[in-house]
Amino acid sequence: MDTNQPATPAHVRRLPEVIVNRIAAGEVIERPAAAVKELVENAIDAGARRLEVSLAGGGVDRIIVTDDGGGMSADDLALAVDRHCTSKLRDETLVHISTLGFRGEALPSIGAAARLCITSRPKGESGAWRIRVEGGKVSPVEPAAGAPGTSVVVEDLFFATPARRKFLKSARVEGRHAENVVRRLALAVPQTAFRFVLDERVLFDLPAQDMAARSAALLDASEADGFLEIAGERDGMTLSGFICPPSVHRSTANGQFMLVNGRPVVDPVLKTAVRVAYRRVIEPGRHPVVALTLTVPPDRVDVNVHPAKTELRFADEASVRSLVIGTIQRALEHGAGSVGVRPVLSSAPRQARIWYPPEKEAAPPVPAPAFHAPTPEGVRFAEGRLQFGDAPAARTLPPVAMPSSGAGWDAPAVNTAAPTQAMPTYVADGASAQPVAADHPLGAAIAQVLDTYILAVAADGSLVLVDQHAAHERLTHERLRAQFLSGHVQAQRLLVPDVVDLPRVQVELLLARQPTLEKLGVEIEAFGGDSVLVRALPAMLRSSDAVNLLRDLAEELEADENGAPDEMAALDGRLDAVIARMACHGSIRAGRRLSVEEMNALLRQMEETPRAGTCSHGRPTWLKLSKADLEKLFGRR
């Protein structure tokens, strides 16, 4: 056979409708979570006020979505499984889209790849109707029994497209993806009750709620005292929602829920803006927890970018980015104490708990002989003796002049007294307890533990613990950064200017931001062709390599064209790292004893300094233990 003979050209032919539907199904239904998303969106668009989702085998074996929405008649049911048939699209220009679905592809795609059964009964009708689709083959509509609303059953997903089924993950992984999808949709409609069951296990059952309660239930951020509510407006756009303090973070971005015009999205512009907003207050590699709602004029956002409808295209990405970053950063610039951070506590086992009688109804205790504990010479305790019959009591420090601000307290004076071999915890002598001012969230200092941690009592009686080194490190960091950014960052001219060769696009991006770079201490100029001449770098970055710095900065600007140089980790991150090192070395060290006045002055300055809830490395500077937390520790609840 002569292999050099030209092959006979194939004739163009029209593919069968079944094959077309199966190919299109691969774009819309890529995994069980995508099918769940489309079905739940249909239920929401139908006006459901109660919605239940049940999965078996991660959604591959079975998906059941039941709602109490408007339902469909027999004629509507027959059209619903045909491609590009929808009741939602009113605007043929695809601009003013007010529903979650509008493409008319979900049900036909699911029917082409699985066994689909839809039972629906319109409100006010006495009976329901049912239709079945298996691998693209549609059965006639038939009468059935059913409650008002719609119930969709999807079985044996991807049986008609085994190539797609072969690449699915385990049932546990697929089920987790589906759960994340339902959580995001549940946030979009807090007025709708949601119930999610995975392999006969109820993962959540949420009643109709307001946005705050729904956000708290879905984000599961119980370790924080509460959310920070945000609100911002810019160029006709509004941003609202709730964010967690920097001390609440996760290893992935699954805790970031974002809605645009009521539609759950996973948008790179919004994700980048959230990351930039938290960058200075969160540990590297960790992701914040947020629930954001962005409202944009319909003519300034395109939702018809991808069949999954999770990606958007904004007409003005720079404005969206600025709105998100600015709004979140303003909320994060609070001082320490406004939002508490509680450690995760595990309560004692039930069988080991002790029952305590009500304190108010308890009989008067029988006096017991005093027990005098032997104490080493020179060591003093808060109590000289302990009466076993006495009621629990606590003593505080004597009232001290608590400064209204931390001004003038940059570094406490060094205690020149020689350290004694005393106990690692010391408490000053006190008289009667004094009330703590309500406008001091961190309360009044009562002790210093291990010469490192400050103990304070807040106005509500909660116990506050402060890491003195981490706290003062943040205070010093903010002061140094304000000094550097109050004007131009001091630049150090290079003895021999460096020439950096870059792609033409990156050169143009750098030169377009030349004025901003000069304020940050980076002086560049065009050097012809695809080269940039670097004449100066920030004086703080003495040993930095100009070539690598410019390349990293150019790559980050190319990846995020709307970003500013002072938001990029290549430059601002390095400057911030130097400031953090300077702040760390210039802060009070662990193991150093502070006077009562110094401790209280530190607390007051923490309350007034932005981002004082975390240190320069993103670790918390203070923790809070409420009465409930202490009761958990001691097995009282």
TrEMBL record:
HAMAP family recorded: DNA_mis_repair
GO biological process: one example: mismatch repair
Q: Which GO terms describe its molecular function?
A: ATP binding; ATP hydrolysis activity; ATP-dependent DNA damage sensor activity; mismatched DNA binding
Q: Does the keyword DNA damage apply?
A: yes
Q: Which InterPro entries match?
A: DNA_mismatch_repair_CS (IPR014762), DNA_mismatch_repair_MutL (IPR020667), DNA_mismatch_S5_2-like (IPR013507), HATPase_C_sf (IPR036890), MutL/Mlh/PMS (IPR002099), MutL/Mlh/Pms-like (IPR038973), MutL_C (IPR014790), MutL_C_dimsub (IPR042120)
Q: Name one GO cellular component term.
A: mismatch repair complex
Query: What Pfam families does UniProt report for this protein, alphabetically?
Result: DNA_mis_repair, HATPase_c_3, MutL_C
Q: Which family does it belong to?
A: Belongs to the DNA mismatch repair MutL/HexB family.
Keyword Calcium belongs to the record:
no
- MutL C-terminal dimerisation domain mapped to chain residues: 445-594
Role played: This protein is involved in the repair of mismatches in DNA. It is required for dam-dependent methyl-directed DNA mismatch repair. May act as a 'molecular matchmaker', a protein that promotes the formation of a stable complex between two or more DNA-binding proteins in an ATP-dependent manner without itself being part of a final effector complex.
Ranges for domain DNA mismatch repair protein S5: 215-333
* Coiled-coil segments: none
Q: Which UniProt keywords apply?
A: DNA damage, DNA repair
Name the UniProt record assigns to this protein: DNA mismatch repair protein MutL
Which domain of life does the protein's organism represent?
Bacteria
